Records
---
Amino acid sequence: MPRFCYLNGKLVSEKTAKVSVLDRGLLLGEGLFETMRAYNGQVFGIGRHLRRLQRGAEALGLRLPSATQLRTATSELLEANKLLRARVRMTVTSGPGGPGIIAPPDVEPTVVILAHPIEIPSDRIYRHGMRGVILPIRKFASAPLVGIKSISYGENLAGRRIAAEAGADEGIFLNHLGDLCEGTASNVFLYRYGELLTPDLESGCLPGITREVVLEVAPSEGLKVRETAVSPIDLAQAEEAFLTSSTRELMPLVEIDGLPIGSGIPGPIAARIHDAYRSVVIAECGSAD
């Protein structure tokens, strides 16, 4: 069956879709993206994702279609591809303005939405947990793209390669102060001394959508939650830790730099919060499958 994508207002075949060689996303990495997960044919948290996309667009000076247009396009794409469970990728660039530093004022943005069957992570990740390493690459909290989900993803790709070469599932960035920042494609949480801790936004981490939901549901599970500066020592001494992402939800982190975190197996706190998260998904989408 042919697979469709959304390109600049139309559903077209992925095989025939074309983006200009003058597109500034291709030439300069000027653009934004959101990766979302659809359950039961509904994109979870799409309003949250679109608000983050809008904030990024304002920061970069990009023009976006309306949120209603993007919602409708996403729904139509899922229907056209006959997908109930999907990974949805929305990309917006500043359009085919060429390689100049300043974009021409009359260039329309390029908008691409892809929807593919989601590859469910290995059950090993949830039953046995993930292995992490601290990366040698530092994030700078004052960098201009901090907090923006930019298509300029070189640091994250380099970090993931380093982690893979070390035999780990995820790499964790520190910021310029030596505190935890984020994973290459995840946010970090740890449980210690009765508190759930996560790096605050001042650390330079991306304001992840799953992170946002966890911060909302954890208090209802009787947990004290704090966004703060978190050191690598805090992580090493944690009772539990887990990572969050929109496509993989909550993933227990049981090892860092070859040493166990807590007991070295997934713990009950992460499981409770994951259940609470999936309850929110069910309430919004009708299913968490």
Note: The longest strand covers residues 130-139.
---
Amino acid sequence: PATRTFQALRIAVNRELESLEDGLDKVFHFLNPGGVCVVISFHSLEDRIVKRKFRYFSKENKVEIITSKPLRPTDFEIQINPRARSAKLRCVQRRNNHKNNILLKIFLL
């Protein structure tokens, strides 16, 4: 109960959501063709921002979405690390006009 309140305060005071959005906008300027961007989010608000940005860049034909749905921790991983239970991993690859890296897709499936 109080944990959510403190989490909301921390997110607001530290401008975490704005920082995430700014960071995602900037990372693609530095990502080489064929380069991969992987983001792990732990909160639904964070995940929504990541999902929206990845979709936007995909529609702009800048990236290929590697994980159509976020990867979630396994039951075993949650058993070892309970804090991982809310983690969601999303991944995109900057488009390379010469070829697609199918190996990365296979690795993440």
Note: The two ends are 36 Å apart (CA to CA).
---
Amino acid sequence: MSKIWIILQLCILEVYSRSSLATGKYSTASSYYQNSSCYHPSKGNDGNYVQALACNNCYRGSDPRGGGNWWLVDLLDVYFIDIVVVYTISGFEMQLVQFLVGLANTLGPVVRNSYELCDQYQKPIVVPGSYQVRCNANLEQYSIVIIQQPSTGFGSMAFAEMEVFAAQNPESKVWKKFAKNRLAKPASVTKIVRSAIECVIGCSIIKCYSVNYNHVLMSCEMFASLQGLPAPFILTADVKYDYLKSQYVSLLAIAMKATWIVLLYFRLANAVKNIALFKTATADSTYYANACAVASHATDGIYNTDGYKCECFAGAVKTERGLYYLCNQYEFDISATGIFTLKCNANMPAVRYVIVQARYDLPGNLNACELLVYEAAYPESKLWNKLHDHRLIQTFLFSFNTSSVHGCLIRCNLYKCGSVNYNNANTACEIFQHPFGYVTGNVPKQVIGWDHWQLFYA
């Protein structure tokens, strides 16, 4: 079988088909040059796009280096902000180097690092033009848009015009990857995951800002919010990391350009209904028969992870293994509070009940604060996931040699198997048909030279 590679490149043609939300709205600033009406804050959103320093053409501040150097506009209503565009003044490009775009819902003097961050412009600005910042798609709605010079800026912030565009469809989002880059800030949550996909799923569930994914250590650093953290938010080059950020799908832009986007071949958790929410839940036991620890607390929509707040489920005894269909087994130790995601085997039949059970060799007292369940958006759309240098060491259905992993996976599909091991050196294929799993564990072990393949929904 020949290999067929399909590469999808999104070419976004950026054309303005809507009016800026900011044009003509009330605006104010930390200062304006010589208190002259020529450079009043309103000149920054008056619809005049002439990029020359002249009376009534632009906004120009007078704050010194490290001063306030902020400007804001009140949109008069709340929006999911997607794109903010700033037009420079010829000869004053340096006044906008690495400018910050903030969001707020309270009109008043701007305190540096106190507002929600849309984002910071990442690249140098050395020529006249228009420069856009894409806001994070997991933020709430806001009515105030702030432009601020970083504290290391040149002072006297100035620009010709700015525009604000809201998300066309707030539920339509993609994750953009900044390869070999990392946001060097303290993470809200750090956990070990199996892939970048699992990292961004966890981020989507809690609607976090962005993630760093370390593809060497397989660690996921989630940023719940950047509000309150000191600027700058410029990405740092790091070959071990990829930085991923949620953005709205938009037809707006400035120029024709090719953009590589990490496309997740499944619906993100915040755009799909949690089908376990408020459904009947039961358990084999409850910790000391305490009403604070009943099974229904795991499906009540309350995400508080404090086990002492009467909002979680806690079991009491070590349970027996059941003959139920195995979705999957989480493969890492859990030593801290967090969100832990499992993708189910895509060859299972449709089922009604979802079961969470402790590992067979643990002492009991299973506990969980909330369970979320999402069905396959497209049950016929599936993909194979490879765990490199891993092997499931259990009794397999049968084994044989095949010239490539493709033959191994095709044979597995014919039998609707659970997973396969494939050895690239000796071409050995081990096929597992284990719909109910293995009592002693279903976690592949690290074995050099073997790859473990699992079939998931796309």
Note: The chain has two helices and 24 strands.
---
Amino acid sequence: MVHSFRHGFSGFAAKLTESQAKKIADLPEVVHVIPDRFYKPATTRTWDYLGLSPTNPKNLLNQTNMGEQMIIGIIDSGVWPESEVFNDNEIGPVPSHWKGGCESGEDFNSSHCNKKLIGAKYFINAFLATHESFNSSESLDFISPRGYNGHGTHVATIAGGSYVPNTSYKGLAGGTVRGGAPRARIAVYKTCWYLDLDIAACSSADILKAMDEAIHDGVDVLSLSLGFEPLYPETDVRDGIATGAFHAVLKGITVVCAAGNAGPAAQTVGNTAPWILTVAATTLDRSFVTPMTLGNNKVILGQAIYTGTEVGFTSLVYPENPGNSNESFSGTCERLLINSNRTMAGKVVLCFTESPYSISVTRAAHYVKRAGGLGVIIAGQPGNVLRPCLDDFPCVAVDYELGTYILFYIRSNGSPVVKIQPSRTLIGQPVGTKVASFSSRGPNPISAAILKPDIAAPGVSILAATTTNTTFNDRGFIFLSGTSMATPTISGIVALLKALHPDWSPAAIRSAIVTTAWRTDPFGEQIFAEGSPRKPADPFDYGGGLVNPEKATKPGLVYDLGLEDYVLYMCSVGYNETSISQLVGKGTVCSYPKPSVLDFNLPSITIPNLKEEVTLPRTLTNVGPLESVYRVAVEPPLGTQVTVTPETLVFNSTTKRVSFKVSVSTTHKINTGYYFGSLTWSDSLHNVTIPLSVRTQLLPYYYDEN
């Protein structure tokens, strides 16, 4: 026996042979036998950028006393309890609904918990069942809630870290670090174990056990910055996070998960279950500009996190490849591996790459530094992930256009030189907001009619706490990027919304966040999606848009969901009645013909295969003024006709829920890709907007399926 589950759902985890598993699966009282699998772990500016400044006494942050009575459960790689972000200064008693505790283990005991870090548990049994030779002293990890790598500490900081003033990374991004709900309590559930500093494994059975415990302990929000490849549909019981999240949501716990870091390719989004709040990552209105001056006095602004001293005018070289038949290899960052020390020693090197910047920068900097070079300029596709180089070695990113200009300068000058200055922090306009290139994209590869991701939040170069023994930390703080960082941003906001509206369901909270999101940045400018090429962002990049915390407090109307709605969804995608009945704890009969997944009351409409006109229902619940009248406005996707009936919704003291129908038809005569639009209900105070995504498929065939 590895684990037993008894709080959110009944079951156990055990090490079994295939024949034993089959025998158990055949028992009538057994719902599913799930093979174990492993997941991966997928600030000073964020909260001001999103409008949650502590200086505004009437905003969401201060209306909720900064989330003091909320408990955020972090399922990740553990915690570094000595970090300043877990101080409990000026925080009141532990909330009365907390039933958890702190477990002791290697270099961790209950004294490491306080009124901020109120819970810490670890789950390793399933991991050990498949990694019997795991040795914590060799892997550097701790068999306890203590996390060595720092990923779990970083995400906990973003969600609910306490105020830590005068923080920066070696002078960059200076300010006060804090979480979205800085007085919320943190409960850590360690399920990810590092085989070395960069490779972690998170067993689905351990995650399920952690979710089961978190439900019992009384968390209000669950935050999981984890993902897995390949993806499984919700009907496939191997998706442990989806299974655990379903039971958590039925208990009123919002589950927030990362979309994944496999972008910008389409159909890469993960954590696609419709009861999960799935988060994409954007940039902030912050940039780390690095001035470079060429010998012709032309100043070029690159991107880097370079905190060393100025590199005075120094020879600038490009690794030409004369006489080699493979001219396409000339000047690439990959060629630096075979270049000679004589070519690069004492010089700054320019190279070009097609690889992701986060990979190329590390390799190129290593090659140049090893050869005695003084710096490297890396030209490539616009990217988002910046990371410092070892020993403050300057490695500066530019796009192809600037890289080509620098190359022209090198080739047209007998003695080209460059000066590199330390990076500087630039905040506000003209720095624009973009969906990060790494952020996984829709359409949903599992259930195409369910829009994923749901929402986007900042997740690029986020400064938060880490362990003090990781590379690149400054006083225990570090920049990290990923949907792992965007996820706890939403988790912190969810905690505040639940504190303000304790009667809202997880679906209502999700609806409030999605329908009030920015479709531009906070300054009204277009949000673009990084990729090749860069393009205006659409719902497959960012769901409803960029989260707008203040607007989410008063959405006016919400698209709510309850158990019966989830049953309808499971019937529509193929669960059999016996499995559904056992899962939800009561008898279930699916209607015939099978219900349409398009009828699921989501705050979005996605039609992946439109041929003939379809009509689908939606129901809105009034959470605003009792006496309200809303009128509809539609931006139809290109080549479609969208009709809403009725066009006016009236709410009063006796009418709190109103349904309407949406009919969609196509004018296209050929198969198309997806086109996007929106549907908005408005009164004098609120705009309740959902995205529309429609693809015409008159004759489905494989070539047009993406």
Note: The longest strand covers residues 657-666.
